[in-house]
Amino acid sequence: MDRKRIEMVFFFILLAAISVLVFLVLLPFIQPLVLAAILAAAFFPFHKKLTGWLGNRPSLSAIIIILLTVIIILVPLFFLGLRIFDESKDLYQSIRTSDISIVTSISERINEPLQNTVPGYEFNLQEYLANGVRWLGNNFGTLVSSTATVLIDMVLVIFALFFLLRDGQKLRKSIIELSPLSDKYDRNIFETLGRTVKAVLGGAILVALIQGVLSGAGLAVFGVPNPAVWGTLAAFAALIPPFYTSVVMLPAVIYLFVTANILQAVGLLIWSIILVGLIDNFLGPYLYGKGAKMSPLWVLFSVLGGLLFFGPLGFIFGPLVLSLFFSLVDIYRQFMQEKG
Fold first, then answer.
1. pLDDT at 219 over 80
2. Residue 67 pLDDT more than 80?
């Protein structure tokens, strides 16, 4: 083996070892860094325009966007997490310790035909609801159980977001230059991920969040207990075709009817149809048109899988991982076409 070859082998072994060490050093901060990268990709078009309006001052533009992010997203998310954590604990206890008549009635109606088909199997809606609420509380509890950890992560996101906004173009150019793939494939990956961020954050998830907020507000206004928990579940249900938020809102209307709150039930029904139900029809197409369209089925499974694998931030990470996979499959298809 000649000296040049030995040098190359040694270099790549050293590079691999150092890369592993760098990965292990950064591993505890992967989620804040990825979240900052996603926010930077989502805000970059606005950052570019704002930089021009401010006389080509990217640092000032990044600071303004960070302030807006903290005020509009991070602070409300933290306090919403606190509220959901508290409500979910109370709701979990009430479901486990009390016999809620409407839940029992639904379970009985489901079990009667089910027992004829699958003898011995019992559908326990009360247990399923309790487990679902406990999972929600545990996951959101991780966001608020350690204030110091949350504050550190928020600071890391803010710092990373500032530098990614200010130097994002240079970083992208460096990655393209270092990548062994052809530049057109690298650009294709970046463009696909960028479109996905716009479509998922600005389309499916933003619409779901708006519907969740409106659902929670309606539940609070018309007197349904634990509106933050049910509003959060409505936001997740908004990603599930074909029923969407009706999975949460319809049982809430029935609950108000059963408890003899007729006027509140009618009011919540009207609220659900006019304010919550029409958001997806009017706002959804406009926001989806801003980015790459993703099938609601893929959005659903990528969000649920992301939540199970990554935790609370999986509703963003899951669709991005799936989008990257589709992008690589598309590159492979182009490889095959060029060979053919």
1. yes
2. yes
Residue whose C-alpha is closest to residue 272's, from 299, 236, 305, 234: 234
Q: How many CB atoms lie within 10 A of CB 172?
A: 16
Is 173 among the domain residues? Answer: no
Indicate whether 44 and 162 sit together in one domain: yes
Q: How far apart are CA 147 and CA 109, in angstroms?
A: 44
Q: For the chain, what is the domain count? A: 2
Cβ neighbourhood burial of 336 (10 Å; 0-12, 13-18, 19+): exposed
Residues 121 and 190 in one domain: no
What spatial distance separates the first Cα and last Cα of the chain, rounded to whole Å? 36
Those residues with Cβ within 8 angstroms of residue 230's Cβ, 6 or more apart along the chain or in another chain = 215, 216, 219, 224, 248, 252
Q: Same domain, yes or no, for 183 and 110?
A: no
**Inter-axis angle of helices 262-271 and 206-221, to 10 degrees?**
160
Residue 24 lies in a domain: no
Please give the pLDDT value at position 104.
57
| pLDDT of 110 above 70 | no
51 inside domain: yes
**Distance of alpha carbon 309 from alpha carbon 104, whole angstroms:** 32
Residues 155 and 184 in one domain: no
Q: Of 227, 228, 245, nearest to 236 (Cα)?
A: 245
Least confident of 157-161, 185-189, 238-242, 331-335: 238-242
